[in-house]
Amino acid sequence: MKKYLLLTLLLLTGALGAMSFGPAESGYKAGDVARDFNLKNVDGKMVSLADFKDAKGYIVTFTCNHCPFAKMYESRIEALDKQFASKGYPVIAISPNDVTAVPDDSYANMVTLAKEHHYTFPYLIDETQDVTKAFGATNTPHVFVLNKENGKLVVRYIGAIDDNAQDASKAKSHYVADAVNSLLARKPVATAKTKAIGCGIKWKS
């Protein structure tokens, strides 16, 4: 009986770890117009989407240092930037968590991680969590593909990077890459939303 209760508690803890609490229902939907933001990068400079003058759109990715899912997807986030930044769709990574709750996600640790992995994209900190709330991000990682249309930033995809967090080689659906390739080909995005799988964002109390 005790063994059964312990197993139940472990399963519940794991499930809660992948859920998010706080602002979850608000935020952008596919087709909405997103607003620009201004956040501090790991190089100490403030970064806005408008800084990327030649961009056709953006792969805005909410991720972090500590989350096991974010770690599993880190190399894939790097690969997305290498694949699409030169084509006009750079990765813009944002760390959304309350660093008081998760010290591993502190700005200093973000700087260290970015240097160790030679990030080719901005890694921004959302200290107020206002940008995270505006987007409606709930998990790390959680991706929003934006497309520039008539001077506006239109949300064309929201969700997971692909359909296999544990093994990239076994992923059958590459949602973000497919969405960006469709936009580059001036075609509609077939899958505009999927469920973001990852650690729930840690909100300020």
Structural overview:
The longest helix is centred in the middle third of the chain and has 17 residues, at 68-84. The protein has 5 helices and 10 strands, in the order H-E-E-E-E-H-E-H-E-H-E-E-E-H-E. The chain has helices at 2-17, 68-84, 107-116, 130-135, 175-184, and strands at 33-34, 39-41, 46-47, 57-62, 91-95, 123-125, 139-140, 142-149, 152-159, 199-200. The chain is of the alpha+beta class and 205 residues long. Helix content is 29%, strand content 20%. It has a single domain (21-200), classed as 3-Layer(aba) Sandwich (Glutaredoxin), CATH 3.40.30. The model is unreliable at 1-24 (pLDDT under 50).
Any chance you could write out the topology, listing elements then pairs?
Blueprint: H1 2-17, E1 33-34, E2 39-41, E3 46-47, E4 57-62, H2 68-84, E5 91-95, H3 107-116, E6 123-125, H4 130-135, E7 139-140, E8 142-149, E9 152-159, H5 175-184, E10 199-200
Parallel strand pairs: 4-5, 5-6
Antiparallel strand pairs: 1-9, 2-3, 2-6, 4-8, 7-10, 8-9
Which architecture name does CATH use?
3-Layer(aba) Sandwich
Quote the average pLDDT. 90
Q: Name the structural class.
A: alpha+beta
| Beta strands, count | 10
Shape: globular
| Name given to the CATH homologous superfamily | Glutaredoxin
Number of domains: 1
DSSP summary: helix tally: 5
Q: How big a fraction of the residues is strand?
A: 15-25%
